[in-house]
Amino acid sequence: MLATVTDNGFITVASLATLAGATSACLAVAAVVGDFFGEGLKKVAALIAALAISLGVLAVTDGAKGAEQWLVAILNGCLIYATALGLNKANAAGGGW
Fold first, then answer.
1. Does the pTM of the predicted model rise above 0.85?
2. In whole angstroms, what is the distance from residue 70 CA to residue 68 CA?
């Protein structure tokens, strides 16, 4: 069974290991930091949150952790950040990237 954001909308520890849960947490952190400190820190906070979540999930999982697992965790952090901030350029004017 996949762990996701609960039916009542709250994020759980288990849901942080899913893209939906990690993205929701990243977006929440970015929104709060952006509101409290200003929009200038919003993207920085989102990137830090995304990397902390992905690296934290790897750190608490069982099994060997070689360089390739850490690299994948960093890439997953980038994916969480891009998903949370809506960095999809495929539909942009001019044909994308």
1. no
2. 5
